[in-house]
Specification:
With 316 residues, the protein is an alpha/beta fold. Helix content is 39%, strand content 16%. The protein has a domain of 187 residues: Rossmann fold. Strands 3-2-1-4-5-6-11 form a seven-stranded parallel sheet, sandwiched between helices. The longest helix has 22 residues. It is globular, with a radius of gyration of 19 Å. The two termini are 22 Å apart. The relative contact order is 0.13.
Length: 316
């Protein structure tokens, strides 16, 4: 492993992967494209990380950043959007990456998809993820696909969001409260990505990345509130009401907290099927959300506790 392109390296999972790669393989060169040269400059503190300003959706730019690389990792994903945006990010980008890899002579690709990805899945998100998998699996490259459940960790927009909401709200109305998840720690996902790059036996495999326990969305919301000392009653709302909430949130500035497509995704359980290999097959014992969350959710204000999380990550 000499030079690795990491698409999405400035994101939540990407930063964890870069840190682990730099620690485990200090001689490796990590190429991290970004549209904004000033974004996530803390990555430059890591040895041999090269932040490159590039539009990864441009095939010529992809070819340039792949030059002299030995492998590529694709972590790029979105949770909200219309059909065109989901196709562009989840389906067309993997296709462009496969083509650019063939042109550049890069055979090894590790790609992060999602649990529940399928051509007939109920949401645009999951269907587009399946299309991205297919583009890579039929590319003739040496591909490994990882399907994580919802990913939690220091900077997640999941448990941190529930913690902040419960700091102020007397009750928490929640659509999809009975939807089932198997949360996986961001550092376990990063370890899995690293293991796939180190182990040629993972080529051609699809791995389901999930934690050791299954929770409903309502249980996870209550866990976040409890850890922060602000546990509120969670009120399950009917699907129709949830869709009205989602439609209203879509009108607000910024990324919506919940969309109708998110609700569609929750129609299928976000848990491992058991029919595919998982973290244990990569030599990783998954961490429990109940053990990790108290170390980064502040009991006082629902914000992140960097010191405890980093200490745990170093020991991990």
């Amino acid at each position: 492993m000499r030079r690795v392109l990491i698409l999405g390296g400035t994101g939540f999972i990407g930063r964890a992967l870069c840190a682990q790669l730099a620690e485990r393989h200090p001689d490796a060169e990590l190429v991290v494209p970004t549209r904004h040269s000033g974004q996530r400059r803390e990555l430059l503190a890591l040895p041999d990380v090269e932040l490159v300003q590039a539009d990864i959706h441009d095939e010529a730019a992809l070819a340039r950043v792949l030059a002299d690389c030995d492998a590529a990792v694709n972590l790029v994903g979105i949770l909200h959007g219309d059909d065109a945006r989901f196709r562009r990010v989840h389906a067309e980008l993997p296709r462009k990456l496969a083509h650019a890899c063939r042109v550049a002579g890069v055979r090894r690709v590790v790609h992060v998809s999602a649990l529940g990805a399928a051509p007939d899945a109920p949401s645009r998100y999951l269907r587009s993820k399946a299309a991205g998998e297919a583009a890579l699996q039929t590319s003739g490259l040496d591909v490994t696909i990882l399907r994580p459940s919802v990913v939690f960790g220091e900077e997640d927009q999941f448990l941190n969001l529930f913690a902040r909401l419960q700091r102020w709200a007397p009750v928490l109305p929640l659509a999809g409260a009975q939807a089932r998840f198997q949360p996986v720690w961001v550092h376990d996902v990063a370890r899995a990505l690293l293991a796939c790059q180190e182990q040629p036996s993972t080529i051609g495999q699809v791995y389901e990345l999930a934690g050791p326990a299954v929770y409903t969305l309502g249980e996870l919301a209550r866990l976040a509130g409890r850890v922060c000392g602000h546990e509120r009653p969670v009120i399950a709302v009917p699907d129709a009401v949830g869709r009205l909430q989602a439609a209203f949130m879509a009108l607000l500035p910024g990324e919506p907290l919940m969309s109708g497509d998110n609700l569609d995704s929750m129609k299928v359980d976000n848990v491992a099927t058991g029919r595919l290999p998982g973290l244990q097959d990569l030599g990783i014992t998954p961490a429990a959300v109940s053990a990790i969350a108290p170390q980064y959710l502040s009991a006082r204000n629902g914000c992140v506790r960097l010191d405890a999380w980093r200490a745990k990550a170093r020991r991990g």
